[in-house]
Automatic annotation (TrEMBL), chains A, B:
Protein name according to UniProt: LacI family DNA-binding transcriptional regulator
An annotated Gene Ontology molecular function: DNA binding
Pfam families recorded: LacI, Peripla_BP_3
Keywords (A to Z) from UniProt: DNA-binding, Transcription, Transcription regulation
Entry keyword Membrane: no
Gene3D superfamilies tied to this protein: 3.40.50.2300, lambda repressor-like DNA-binding domains
SUPFAM superfamilies: lambda repressor-like DNA-binding domains, Periplasmic binding protein-like I
HTH lacI-type domain segment(s): 10-64
Keyword Transcription recorded: yes
Length: 342, 342
DNA sequence: AGAGTCTCCGGGAGCGCTCCCGGTCGGCCG
DNA sequence: CGGCCGACCGGGAGCGCTCCCGGAGACTCT
C-alpha cells in the first residue's frame, strides 16, 4: 500500500494497520461489537485517536442502508415562517429531539412549486432515513407526493387532506377551543366572538368548529360573530376592528393564535375597551414569549411544540426499527392556562 | 442476476439492463456526459423514468467525494435564536442561496458544550462538503475547533476572536453606526445616547465604537450616554428607561438593533416623549417586518442577510472548486434608510 | 490503402465500509 | 485424551456508483 499522504483522511484500513489488526477487527472495535479482546479494542481505539480517524459516512451508509439523518420539512410560504414563533420552536425542538436519538436533522423548506420537485428528489435520493412533515395547508400537494416515496413519514398536525394511512401527531384543536369558550361562557360572557386563523388549514378550521359548537351547546347563536385572519399581528388587529364595528356589544373574543391576539389587544386598547373588564380575551398556542408577556397577560390554550415533536420522533423511530405501527392520528391533549385577560 | 423484488429500489444496473446498455453508458447518459449517442441517452432516460430510478447518493459520494450538502452552523444560545428575526432570515437565505447552486442545506444548532462535540463529529464525518458558520460570540470555542477540520469554511460576521487566515463576510458595522450618528448630529441633535448590543459580540462592539468615535469627532462627550442590552425587546425597553433616568435631557438614541428599538419606542411612549419631536430614534438591521411597521416607522441602518449569505456561498463555491481564494474579511456596505423616527 | 482521429461503448477496478464465513486457539467435559 | 464449544480474528464479498482504459467502427487525410 502506498504511504498515505498527510492530508488524506485515514481509512479504517489505516487504523487497522496502525493498530496491527485486521480491518474487520478494527471495525468491530469501533462499533463495539462483541467478540473483540479488550487488548485489541484498546489498540484500535488508540490508533483511531492518534490518526484522527472518523468513519466515512457515505461508505458506511452504502452498506448499512442507514444515514442517521432525518428530514424535517416545513411546507409553508416564506412570509409565514419568518415570524411564526411556533414554527421556529418546531425547528428547534426537532433538532434537539433528533439529536437525543442520535440523528441529524436536515431542514427542508418547501413553499414554491419548484421546491416541491426539489424536495421530493432530495428525499428519494436516500439522503435521509425518514421524514417529519409539517404541511398544514389543505391544498398542499406535498403530502400526497410523499406517499409515493416509501420513506417512513410522520406528519405534524394535519397532513393536508390526507386522513387514512398516515402517521400523524396533532393537538386537540377542537377540544382546546371548547375549553377556551366554555371558560368564557362559565364566567358569564354571552357575546363571544372569534378571530379564526386561515380556513385553508386544518387546525384553524377545527378551532373555529370548537368555538361554534360550544356556543350552540350554550344556546348562543354564533352568526356574525366570527372573523377570519391570517395568523399575523396585523391581521389580528384588523379582524378585531371589524368585529368591534359589526358587534359593538361583544364581551369576549376567542382568538386563534397568540400572535393575532397581540394585534387584537392593540385594537381593543386603541378603542378604549378594557381587558378583561369590557372584553375578555382568550387565545391559542400559549407561546412562552408572547402570552405571559402581554398586558394583560393572556389566557391561552397551551400546546407544547416540543411535546409534539417528541411524539413524532418516537413514532418515527419505531417505524425505522421495523415495528409495525398502526397508522393513525395521535391527538395530544391541550390545557387552558388562565391569566388576567379573561 | 436474481429478479429484483418490487419494493427494492432500482439500481443503475437495473436501469442499464432495462435500457439494453451497459452500466457505464447508463451512468454517462444520466450525468449527461459527452460521447453518448442520442439514441442510447433517450433509452436510458426512459428506463430511469419507467423504473422510478433515483441514484443512491451514498454510493455516488463515496466515489466522487462530494456530498452536495453544505452545513449552516448557528452557534447561539437557544433563547436568542427563537426571537431573533435576523437569524431566521439567515436560515431562510441559506436555504435559498444553497439551493440555487444545487446544494442541500444541513442546519446545525450549536449552543451547549455538548453540542460542540456533536457538531464537530458530524462535520468531520464527511456528511457535508463545506460549512457556513455564524458564531458571533467572542468566547465561542467553535471557530477554533473548526480550523482543525480541513473543511472549506466561510464565516458570517466575526469568527469569535479569529482574525487571520479565515474567510468571512461581514457588514460594515462601525461604518453603519457612523452613518446613523452622523445623520443625528447633522439634524441638530446633541445629546445622542446609545443602546448597545451585548459587548461579548463583535458586531455590537463595532457599532458602539462607531457611535463613540462619531460623537468625539463632533466634539460631543459620550460619557454616560451608553447602555448595554441583550438584543431583546424587553432589554431595549429597560435600557431606554435607564437612559431616561440618567440623562433626562437626551434628544436622540442610536439603538443597536430593531428589536431593541421596538422596546425603546415603547418606553419612550410610556414616558410621554414624542418621537421624533423630543427624541429621535435610529436603529440597526432594518428588518423588513419591524422597522417600517413601527409607529413611527424607524430610521434604520439597512443590512440584507440574503446579500451576506449570497457572498458567503459564492466564496465557499470557489473554495470547493479548488480555487486558491485568499483568506480575509469581505466587508459589505450598509446604508441608512431614513424614516419618520428621526 | 494504411495510418490517424473521433465517436461511442463495455469491462473492470475501486471508493471505504460492514458482515458473513470459516479458521484457530484455548478450556472444559466425558 | 479426543471432541466440542465458545471466544476471537482475518479474508473476502459486495453495497451502487464513477471513472479509466481499451476496443470497435466510421470517417478523413495523405
Amino acid at each position: 500500500m502506498a504511504p498515505r499522504s498527510e492530508d488524506e483522511r485515514p481509512t479504517l484500513e489505516d487504523v487497522a494497520a496502525f493498530a496491527g489488526v485486521s480491518r474487520s477487527t478494527a471495525s468491530r472495535a469501533l462499533n463495539d461489537d462483541a467478540y473483540v479482546s479488550a487488548r485489541s479494542r484498546e489498540k484500535v481505539l488508540a490508533a483511531a485517536r492518534d490518526l484522527g480517524y472518523s468513519p466515512n459516512q457515505a461508505a458506511r451508509s452504502l452498506v448499512t442502508r442507514r444515514t442517521g439523518a432525518i428530514a424535517v420539512v416545513l411546507s409553508e410560504p416564506e412570509a409565514r415562517l419568518l415570524d411564526d414563533p411556533y414554527r421556529t420552536a418546531v425547528m428547534r425542538a426537532g433538532y434537539r429531539e433528533l439529536a437525543d436519538v442520535g440523528c441529524q436533522m436536515v431542514l427542508l423548506f418547501s413553499d414554491t412549486r419548484e421546491d416541491l420537485g426539489r424536495t421530493v428528489r432530495f428525499l428519494e435520493g436516500g439522503h435521509v432515513d425518514g421524514v417529519l412533515v409539517f404541511a398544514p395547508h389543505r391544498a398542499d400537494p406535498l403530502p400526497r407526493a410523499l406517499r409515493l416515496l416509501k420513506l417512513p413519514t410522520v406528519f405534524g398536525g394535519q397532513a393536508a387532506d390526507l386522513r387514512r394511512g398516515v402517521h400523524l401527531v396533532d393537538f386537540d384543536n377542537e377540544g382546546g377551543a371548547r375549553q377556551a369558550v366554555t371558560h368564557l361562557v362559565e364566567s358569564g360572557r354571552r357575546r363571544i366572538a372569534t378571530i379564526a386563523g386561515p380556513q385553508d388549514q386544518g387546525a384553524p378550521i377545527d378551532r373555529l368548529a370548537g368555538w361554534r359548537k360550544t356556543l350552540v351547546d350554550a344556546g348562543i347563536d354564533p352568526a356574525g360573530l366570527s372573523e377570519e385572519a391570517d395568523f399575523t399581528l396585523a391581521g389580528g388587529a384588523k379582524a378585531m376592528a371589524a368585529l368591534l364595528e359589526r358587534v359593538p356589544d361583544l364581551d369576549a373574543v376567542f382568538v386563534g393564535s397568540d400572535m393575532m391576539a397581540v394585534g387584537a389587544l392593540r385594537t381593543l386598547s386603541d378603542a378604549g375597551r378594557d381587558v378583561p373588564g369590557d372584553v375578555a380575551v382568550v387565545s391559542f398556542d400559549d407561546n412562552a414569549a408572547l402570552a405571559p408577556a402581554m398586558t394583560p397577560p393572556l389566557t391561552s390554550v397551551h400546546q407544547d411544540p416540543r411535546e409534539q415533536v417528541h411524539a413524532m420522533v418516537s413514532t418515527l423511530m419505531r417505524l425505522l426499527d421495523g415495528e409495525d405501527v398502526a397508522p393513525g392520528a395521535q391527538i395530544l391533549p391541550v390545557s387552558l392556562v388562565v391569566r388576567e385577560s379573561s
